[in-house]
Design goal:
single chain, alpha+beta, Arc Repressor Mutant, subunit A, Chorismate lyase, 2 domains, six-stranded antiparallel β-sheet, three-stranded antiparallel β-sheet
Length: about 230
């Protein structure tokens, strides 16, 4: 015998259809309004919205409300090293950096310049990244990375010709500290984990590595496999 579907799932599917055509970042009805409109209790309305949050259809902001997700298309391939700032701006949105920390780690041959950032789109937390540079590269680019300068621009302005040499992508649950950086209000949900290595086109030497965590309600990843 087929069990009847939970009411909140039926409501979630109806709302997904109603909201899917709205522009990114559009405020949608809250739990009180939904409960009254569909004559359900607040718990059912809340679970419906949470279900859509799990599907990356909406994004909830405590104290502000619920908004449609951005789901911006973000291309990953082995040939280019796109600037986050340039890519987001080209899509008609506003990139930013809400937190940035630059420091040196390691000693002698293992010495590295490390840059930790929390990146935003339209004022909303979108991604957190840890970028590392070998010492010979770090001493050159350090002065360019104190604010919101893009990693790609810093490398190009310093004379390198960056090319992404390796990309690894996985959907994983982040650690609590990463989840806090991503702005998850409740228990950590899966996020895109992207690890990449960059080399100089001319010399083939490695000049940069990164590990980034990206919110699925902010990005859809296009991974391009090339020979």
């Amino acid at each position: 015998m087929t069990r009847p579907r939970a009411r909140y799932l039926e409501l979630a599917e109806y709302l997904e259809e109603r909201w899917k055509g709205l522009p990114p970042g559009t405020a949608v009805e809250g739990e009180h309004v939904l409960a009254a409109e569909f004559e359900v209790n607040r718990l059912t309305a809340r679970e419906a919205v949470r279900e859509l949050e799990r599907r990356a259809v909406v994004r909830r902001h405590p104290g502000r409300g619920t908004f449609t997700a951005h789901r911006l298309r973000y291309r990953l391939d082995r040939q280019s090293t796109p600037s986050f700032r340039a890519l987001i701006a080209s899509l008609g949105h506003h990139p930013g950096v809400s937190r940035s920390e630059v420091r040196w780690t390691g000693r002698a041959a293992s010495r590295r310049l490390t840059v930790e950032r929390v990146l935003t789109v339209d004022g909303l937390v979108a991604s957190t990244r840890i970028d590392t540079f070998p010492a010979r590269v770090g001493v050159v680019v350090e002065s360019l990375l104190g604010g919101d300068e893009s990693i790609s621009s810093a490398l190009i302005d310093s004379g390198w010709k960056p090319r992404r040499d390796r990309v690894e992508v996985a959907l994983r649950c982040p650690s609590t500290s990463i989840a806090d950086c991503l702005g998850y209000a409740t228990a950590p949900m899966p996020a895109w984990c992207v690890r990449s290595r960059t080399v100089d086109r001319a010399s083939g030497e490695q000049i940069h590595e990164s590990e980034g965590w990206m919110r699925p309600d902010m990005f859809e990843l296009d991974v391009v496999l090339e020979p």
